[in-house]
Fold this protein.
Amino acid sequence: MPKRHCSVDRATKFIFETAHLPAASAKHQLQSLLGLSIAEKAKVPDAASFADVMATQVNQTLAREIADGTFDPFAQDAKLLVLGCDIMRRRGVESSVLVSFTQDTTRALRNLDTIPTQLKGLAYLLDAVNGGPSLIGHQSDSDLPPLGQSLLLADSAKIQQLCNAVAGVTLFGSREASGATDDLMDSLSVLALQKLREYDFILGSALLRTLAYLKSGDSETFDYAATYLESQQKDDGRFGYYARELTEGPDLPDADLDIFLPVAVSVTWALAEMTVPDLQVVAPRS
């Protein structure tokens, strides 16, 4: 695996500073908190203190948005909320909103006779952060969703679905998943580099993380990807230029928050997974 690049250090500062912009919402700050937690595990200087500050900031912003009716937890990414709840709790900050969401979601899944494939990743995550009786139990069907066609011909939504499934069922690489094949690994390597060349850094980074979770030994792909991503980083830590998106795309309230922040978090996470052996995103609760 390649050594950690200084690009991760610069990105960490960008992630922290961007989440303090006046327009930053709880969603943006939760993204930042996740990125900072990953950076801390990658031994980035100041990442731990940044994450401490952000945990408190998220709690305050959530309370404000709940009070004014602008935050609906069930309209958010469930895994991001559960991860955020766990990160905050481990830092001594408890959000009643996120705790309630995690508990309600756990109860809803526990009431199902069988956990559907698309919810298995969430169930594994909840098992890790909650402790106690397993939601998955002894279900023995394949962890990974059926591809239905060659992955190389799949659209971005289907590829992202597979990445999400692998992240969930492997608990971000901490457990093995059934259903992974050599052909799948080869396709993931090809697609990762293809998506980076297409400037889809979020999906490209997700594919790189997927390779890491499946214990790929493709160091050539990781080295090339890390070098390419570093070449696309600006001095302030953000990744990419996105000139066409900024001039031709739909109006965005704030490009730093809606484009560059999620990209920086996704790329930082991928670089950490590629360079930190046995990086543990979620430590199971005792």
Notes: The first helix runs from residue 6 to 18. The CA atoms of residues 139 and 220 lie 36 Å apart. The chain is about 60% helix and 0% strand.
